[in-house]
Amino acid sequence: MAIDRETESETDPRDASAIAPIARSSLHEQVAGRIRDMIIEGRLAAGSRINEAALVRELGVSRTPFREALRTLAAENLVEIRPSMGSVVRKPTPEEVFAMLQVLAELEKLAGRLCCERASDADLAGLLALHERMMSHYARRDRLPYYKANQEIHSTIARLSGNPVLLEVQTGLQSRLKRIRYVGNRSPERWAAAVDEHEEMARALRRRDGERLGAVLAVHLTRTWERVRDVV
Amino acid sequence: MAIDRETESETDPRDASAIAPIARSSLHEQVAGRIRDMIIEGRLAAGSRINEAALVRELGVSRTPFREALRTLAAENLVEIRPSMGSVVRKPTPEEVFAMLQVLAELEKLAGRLCCERASDADLAGLLALHERMMSHYARRDRLPYYKANQEIHSTIARLSGNPVLLEVQTGLQSRLKRIRYVGNRSPERWAAAVDEHEEMARALRRRDGERLGAVLAVHLTRTWERVRDVV
DNA sequence: AGTACGTATTCTGTATACAAAATTCAAATC
DNA sequence: GATTTGAATTTTGTATACAGAATACGTACT
Q1: Which residues in chain A touch residue B102, judged by CB atoms under 8 angstroms apart?
Q2: CA dist list (Å): A114 to A101, A143, A203, B2, B74
Q3: With bands split at pLDDT 50, 70 and 90, how would you rate the model's confidence at B24?
Q4: Which of A31, A40, A119, B227 has the fewest CB atoms within 10 Å around its CB?
Q5: Are A223 and A194 in contact (CB under 8 A)?
Q6: Inter-residue contact B137 to B146 (CB < 8 Å)
């Protein structure tokens, strides 16, 4: 399946009024995105060697943009490039997963506090609406939409913190954890517990109680470790 | 000054006993290192365009490894690649610098706590020795060695936290702040204040008081913002 | 004179070519 | 049978070539 160079990166005719510079994407960006997806979906297994020739053929690009994409992913810690010896999909050790969640807990604690202090009422309402949407996915046990809404809630809290670096670091760690979260958290009880914690967050959010939100978020991530520890 | 490809990446005959895999560095890694240094030293000014042709000529490498190096630096947020329009040295806005320090404060708070819990007595002694060395540099007002010892203290605390991700994120943020720290913190009073804060840290460290160390570190980084805010 | 257009030049992005390193595999040796 | 040695093959790293986009510049026009 070759990358189609025509359909991407066109201006969106819908928002003709908002004159944001149109997003151009070069081949290596697209390639990086595709490899990222393959890693999350498990098509490229953690620990496995990346076959440059095969992927290059499949994506229909030359080695140059492909290798640039690999460097980007290496900087994101998703792949490891061993000089002269090929690249492998990084497989985080359990210690590393714990470490990521510990850092995330600390960052989201800060994000929760800042978000309650600085977000507008409208933003908070939007966040709570997102929460309700997630709950309705849970009611139907709709796993994938739930998962996506969940990710979005956490990113939104980070965004509403108003700290761009916090958002950026959180995004990076989330992306490294995506695959693990994707396969983990399978049991109904654990899922229910995670949902309860989210209800707690929503309560704190409604009261703009930043300390409480932060504390709940930190606990939530500690529990997340317990929920995923046996899949790493 | 072209990069010498012969002398680098050879096995070091001194540590023949320690059979750690020898560090091989490919051209783009070396190039990335050199550009990083140029940015910190200010030879490549923040906000300025990166002249690919000129640098490629100066370093004596071809465009391929150079561009791969640029992608690495872009992932590190040190340069910005604008598709089809060249690369520039990223110039962090004051808001971003504040954001980085805020995140660092939170991370080092955690690092301080963990370090006091988990570091061995020997490691702690080493850290305190480093502190004393820094103080003797301060006594002589030896700016560069002081600066380096300072960086090393903060990295060591992160390392002794035992959380590799914490160390990794901290290292990334430190490297983005290096240039700013390098030019900032010039006044004798501010320097003295920073030194005082470090004495506080050392006291907390001797008592293995993690909470206190974390708090002092957080305050230290808040003050750092005040010390550098007028140079960004 | 100032603006708009079109052309020349430079720079960027991708593909390909080539050299060097690593890996594979088979024969030779112990 | 296991281990070593050494081609043959594959893979990786770097250089270069080429096409297309962006920028600079000069000319015509108002």
Answers
A1: 110, 163, 165-166
A2: 19, 30, 16, 48, 28
A3: low
A4: A40
A5: yes
A6: yes
Q: Is B187 helix (H, G, I), strand (E, B) or coil?
A: coil
**What pLDDT shows up at residue B184?**
74
Which residue, chain included where needed, has tokens 């010039």?
A: B186
Regarding whether B43 and B126 lie in a shared domain, the answer is: no
Taking only residues 119 to 158 of chain B, the set having a beta carbon closer than 8 angstroms to any beta carbon of chain A reads none
Cβ distance of B74 and A74 shorter than 8 Å: no
DSSP per-residue string spanning B82-95: -TTS-EEE----HH
Is A2 inside a domain boundary? no
8 A C-beta contact, residue A213 and residue A220: no
CB spacing of A72 vs B77 below 8 angstroms: no
Residues B70, B130: one domain? no
Is the C-alpha dihedral spanning B205, B210, B212, B217 positive or negative?
positive
**Do the domain assignments include residue B3?**
no
For residue A72, tell me if it sits in a domain: yes
Q: Is B77 on the interface with A (CB under 8 A)?
A: yes
pLDDT band, residue B9 (cuts 50/70/90): very low
pLDDT band at B110 (very low <50, low <70, confident <90, very high): very high
Say whether residue B64 is in contact with chain A using an 8 A CB cutoff. yes
Measured between beta carbons, the chain A residues lying within 8 angstroms of B31 are: none
Q: Which bases in strand D are touched by protein, i.e. have an atom under 7 Å from a CB?
A: 11-17, 21-23
Alpha helix ranges (H) inside chain A: 27-41, 52-59, 63-75, 94-118, 121-139, 143-160, 164-183, 188-206, 210-228
Which stretches of chain A score pLDDT less than 70?
1-19, 21, 185
Q: Which domain holds residue A24?
A: 13-89
The string of pLDDT tens digits covering residues B144-200 is: 999 999 999 999 999 999 999 999 999 999 999 999 988 876 789 999 999 999 999
Which pLDDT tens digit goes with each residue over A176-221?
999 998 887 678 999 999 999 999 999 999 999 999 999 999 999 9
> Which of A89, A121, A136 is the endpoint of a domain?
A89
Looking at A28, A58, A89, the residue that finishes a domain is A89
Q: Is B168 on the interface with A (CB under 8 A)?
A: yes
Q: Which nucleotides of C are covered by protein (CB under 7 A)?
A: 11-17, 21-23
pLDDT score recorded for residue A25: 78
- From the alpha carbon of A3, which nucleotide's C1' atom is closest? C14
B14 has a pLDDT exceeding 70: no
Nearest to A26 among B83, B95, B166 (CB): B83
Q: Tell me, what's the pLDDT at A187?
A: 87
- How many domains does chain A fold into? 2
